[in-house]
Amino acid sequence: MLVLASASPRRKELLSLLVREFEVLPADIDETPWVQESPQNYVLRMAEEKAIAAAAKFPSVFHTPPQSSVIFVASDTSVVVDQQILGKPANLDEAKCMLRLLSGREHRVMTSLCLMNLSGEHLVSTCVDTKVRFRAISDLEIEQYWRSGEPQDKAGSYAIQGHGAVFVESMQGSYSAVVGLPLFECAQILSQFGIHSLEEMSHE
Predict the structure, then answer these.
(1) Which one of 30, 76, 82, 153 is the catalytic residue?
(2) Residue 177 to residue 181: CA distance in whole angstroms
(3) Quick one: pLDDT band at residue 65, thresholds 50, 70, 90?
(4) Cα distance between residue 75 and residue 127, in whole Å
(5) Is 76 a catalytic residue?
(6) What class, spelled out in words, does domain 2-202 have in CATH?
(7) Does the pTM of the predicted model rise above 0.90?
């Protein structure tokens, strides 16, 4: 059994490109960065803590025999500029601050991935770092973009798979990682757990 430890519809859609069947079990954790914690260590810790939290919650939700093979997939995405982690904006003012920081320059999108079995004995994690360059963005555009509703639950206040794509001048790295789940790396790690995506998708 494969379990996605996320409520994100974007991650659910991306994972469905690799495997046909999986369960969804969101994990609530404290997402506050530690003092002087590097962005890479932060996103890796977030993914691992989500997987661990989902595994702890699993027995009370699914009545599966303990010997059953269960694999948890967890991920976390952070937008990073000047070593500053940009989370999700709480309001228009926060979105303005974030998008002004990103305007006309390059930033990094760090997306971590963690796969873990139910016991936690087998845990594999990685971090995918993608460079994204924005064109200059006006305050009027930021306000109009905010009114679309898209930035409100997105790290860094934008969605590359949505209207936010109009700000993207160039990108170097993984598009799927910026959306929320690095497909290449996910397929590679799934194979370490005995799940081969092309075989899964070819089954009738």
Answers:
(1) 76
(2) 5
(3) low
(4) 9
(5) yes
(6) alpha beta
(7) yes
